[in-house]
Design a protein that fits this description.
Low-confidence stretches: none
Strand content: 15-25%
CATH superfamily of the largest domain: Type I PLP-dependent aspartate aminotransferase-like (Major domain)
Structural class: alpha/beta
Shape: globular
CATH architecture of the largest domain: 3-Layer(aba) Sandwich
Bound molecules: pyridoxal-5'-phosphate
Mean pLDDT: 97
Number of strands: 13
CATH topology of the largest domain: Aspartate Aminotransferase, domain 2
Order of helices and strands: EHHEHEHEHEEEHEHEEHHHHEHEEH
Length: about 350
């Protein structure tokens, strides 16, 4: 069945990107691969706003999210938690046998910089995890304010997930002092899943070098050593690296500022549609994500019925709520390659489907 995804990941992938993947294989230790790998660095470093290397990991984002903990947490990590992904990061830290503290906010609330400062001041932490854009609740925390707090604690390595906000707005790794900045391929970059892209500061690498149990697959030191030769530690997902090459061309052609402006405009268009139709934004309005809108189901509509109409009649899919918010919220992505025209089409379909959608029972 052919339908278009407006769920916040994976999202729709353009034909151009799909075609880019269908190229002949090259050896991952060949000069062709080295040339490909090195050719991507300038655009990646521009997107990360960094002078540090940008590494390519054949894994979904969770690989690097877990790997970062194994590399840099020696004493105790503080996990900033305000939604499904950030909550899980705490669980993952514990599963890795790390000492982990929890800085909790209500789902839909941003991470509170003042609370972060108070907790770090109690001492004992050597790393922090933060999700910039909590995709489960459509909540975007104030990254500059949080990084200003983290810069007060030089012993604390910051690990920042920008899976659903990367390239949606400027995220200035070096200027903000982010140690490990990571994203995934299937969300804001509008590629198929399977590639995680990340950059690490020299002090994160220095910390990693001291960790005796950092393993192999996500070893930062291995990534750096191979990077110096224009390679990855193990055989990478070469089709997705071709897709990345194609996507970076797209981004360069559009221009970063235009890309940021497009995301902001399309996000506001969808948000205004929600407001007009009686749906309150789920997160605090000032912290609403720029890459998706998570609406509270304030009209108590039957969300599975809505999605069924959307899918069968309009060949579109939105998300009916993540985890404990299933049925209580719905999420619409505006990240990736969406345009004024594709969003207008989506909203027209939503209007039509909504008129047929019954109220939820029970
Ligand atoms: C989707 C998502 C992840 C997990 O990504 P995987 O590709 O499933 O590993 C992590 N963080 C955020 C913010 C996400 O939106």
């Amino acid at each position: 069945m052919n339908y278009k995804l407006f769920i916040p990941g994976p999202i729709a992938v353009s034909d151009k990107t799909l075609r880019a993947m269908a190229q002949p294989m090259i050896g991952h230790r060949s000069t062709d691969f080295v040339a490909l790998y090195r050719s991507l660095q300038p655009d990646l470093q521009a997107l990360f706003y960094t002078k540090d290397p940008v590494y390519l990991s054949t894994s979904s984002a969770w690989g690097v999210m877990e790997g970062a903990l194994r590399n840099v947490v020696q004493k105790k990590v503080l996990n900033c938690m305000n939604g499904a992904f950030s909550d899980k990061w705490n669980d993952v830290a514990l599963r890795c046998g790390k000492q982990a503290g929890a800085l909790r906010s209500e789902w839909g609330q941003p991470v509170d910089p003042a609370a972060l400062r108070r907790e770090l001041a109690t001492g004992g932490y050597d790393a922090v995890t933060l999700i910039h854009n909590e995709t489960s609740t459509g909540t975007m925390s104030d990254l500059p304010a949080i990084m200003a707090v983290l810069r007060e604690f030089p012993e604390v390595i910051s690990i920042v997930d920008t899976v659903s906000s990367f390239s949606v707005l400027p995220i200035k790794k070096d200027e903000l002092g982010i140690d490990i900045l990571l994203t995934g391929s299937q969300k804001a970059l509008a590629m198929p899943p399977g590639l995680s892209i990340f950059s690490a500061s020299p002090r994160a690498l220095a910390r990693a070098a001291l960790a005796k149990d950092r393993g192999y697959y996500f070893d930062l030191v291995e990534f750096q050593k191979n990077h110096e030769n224009g390679m990855t530690p193990s055989t990478p997902v070469i089709p997705l690296i071709y897709a990345l090459q194609s996507k970076l061309e797209d981004i360069r052609a559009e221009g970063l500022e235009a890309r940021y402006a497009r995301h902001k405009r399309l996000n506001e268009t969808v948000r205004a549609w929600g407001r007009t139709n009686g749906f309150k934004l789920f997160p605090a309005e000032a912290y609403g994500s720029l890459s998706l809108n998570c609406f509270a189901n304030t009209r108590n509509i039957d969300l599975p019925a809505l999605n069924k109409i959307l899918k069968t009649k309009h060949h579109l899919v939105i998300d009916g709520g993540y985890g404990k918010l299933k049925g209580k919220t719905f999420r619409i992505s505006n990240m990736g390659d969406e345009t004024d025209a594709t969003i207008a089409e989506l909203l027209k379909a939503l209007d039509s489907a909504l008129a047929e959608t019954p109220v939820a029972t029970g």
